[in-house]
């Protein structure tokens, strides 16, 4: 059990690194640094020389060693995470471990890693199609969420009052939805569609094309009909993400207030700090024209907020599980 817990901790930390690297690759426009998958210009290890025959075989793809290395480092980290998850799954299926907990979640996690690998491949082969890129980001966050769930199950912890349960569930739903919107903003390069704050293009409600903004099945920079996507559509994407941020502020803020009201100062304070930092990073990214490090930090902030809200939900479920076990004991 100790090895299992250590592997979970290592995998959780590595998942955070992979999310950060993925954001760095995407935001530095290195997503197509390698035109093939899983190698780079046919090389599984390292990046070829710019004058090599491997590079010459891809004349349609300009070679950039820096971008290629960024992409390959991300792949190596993701591959290492996959190996850790495989080890976790194998341990979970051992007879002794199965007596303590079900191997269902580790098995689901391994399947999710396989799906993530496929999405990573399609991200390259389908030339950064927004839907695939967004799903790849959500898959990374889901991987982290499952690892956090498994990790917290290996540790004894207190439980929260029943009054926290529904605000916590609503907060988790809001955070996941906002992460999906953030992924859609990033995959469509709409982060600077509104270059000012709190206004957007100097207005509260600038012209926005919501009809084309959320058409899922389309190529990057195009509408579903193959036409160039308009600035109004990108504005609609950005505005929706801002509205989502207001919703998250209200819902997660309410959850934090409930926690503080029930004496959970550490958890309530943590949520308020993470919420404030994340909102501050979002505003700073707009006002400072999306500096790379701040943009990556915004992605990591989303991962931290998701993990914290998820942990609160798990503690609420832990209390419910205790009540079920107590009821079963009385009945028997």
Automatic annotation (TrEMBL):
A Pfam family it matches: COX15-CtaA
Biological-process GO terms, alphabetical: heme A biosynthetic process
InterPro entries in the record: COX15/CtaA_fam (IPR003780), COX15/CtaA_HemeA_synthase (IPR050450)
Topology versus the membrane: Multi-pass membrane protein
Keywords for the protein's UniProt record, in alphabetical order: Cell membrane, Disulfide bond, Heme biosynthesis, Iron, Membrane, Metal-binding, Oxidoreductase, Transmembrane, Transmembrane helix
One GO molecular-function entry: metal ion binding
One term under GO cellular component: membrane
Keyword Transmembrane: yes
Organism field: Azonexus hydrophilus
Name recorded for this polypeptide: Heme A synthase
Pathway: Porphyrin-containing compound metabolism
Record localization: Membrane
Keyword Aminoacyl-tRNA synthetase: no
Residues spanning the membrane: 73-93, 105-125, 131-152, 164-185, 243-260, 267-288, 294-314
Source lineage: Bacteria, Pseudomonadati, Pseudomonadota, Betaproteobacteria, Rhodocyclales
Superkingdom of origin: Bacteria
């Amino acid at each position: 059990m100790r090895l299992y817990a250590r592997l979970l901790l290592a995998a959780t930390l590595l998942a955070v690194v992979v999310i950060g690297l993925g954001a760095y690759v995407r935001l530095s426009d290195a997503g197509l640094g390698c035109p093939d998958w899983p190698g780079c210009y046919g090389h599984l290890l390292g990046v070829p020389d710019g004058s090599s025959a491997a590079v010459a075989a891809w004349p349609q793809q300009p070679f950039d060693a820096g971008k290629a290395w960024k992409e390959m480092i991300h792949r190596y980290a993701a591959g290492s995470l996959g190996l850790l998850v495989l080890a976790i799954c194998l341990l979970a299926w051992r007879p002794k471990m199965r007596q303590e907990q079900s191997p269902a979640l580790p098995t689901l996690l391994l399947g999710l890693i396989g799906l993530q690998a496929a999405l990573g491949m399609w991200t390259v082969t389908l030339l950064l199609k927004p839907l695939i890129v967004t799903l790849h980001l959500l898959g990374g966050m889901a991987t982290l969420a499952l690892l956090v769930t498994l990790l917290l199950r290996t540790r004894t912890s207190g439980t929260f009052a029943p009054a926290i349960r529904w605000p916590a569930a609503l907060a988790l739903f809001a955070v996941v939805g906002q992460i999906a919107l953030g992924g859609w903003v990033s995959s469509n390069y709409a982060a600077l569609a509104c270059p000012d704050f709190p206004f957007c293009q100097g207005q509260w409600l600038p012209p926005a094309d919501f009809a084309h903004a959320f058409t899922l099945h389309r190529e990057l920079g195009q509408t579903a009909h193959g036409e160039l996507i308009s600035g109004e559509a990108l504005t609609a994407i950005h505005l929706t993400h801002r509205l989502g941020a207001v919703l998250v502020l209200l819902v997660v803020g309410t959850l934090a207030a409930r926690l503080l009201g029930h004496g959970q100062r550490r958890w309530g304070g943590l949520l308020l700090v993470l919420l404030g930092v994340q909102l501050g990073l979002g505003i700073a990214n707009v006002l400072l024209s999306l500096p790379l490090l701040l943009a990556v930090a915004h992605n990591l902030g989303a991962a931290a907020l998701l993990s914290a809200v998820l942990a609160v939900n798990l503690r609420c479920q832990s209390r419910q599980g205790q009540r079920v076990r107590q009821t079963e004991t009385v009945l028997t």
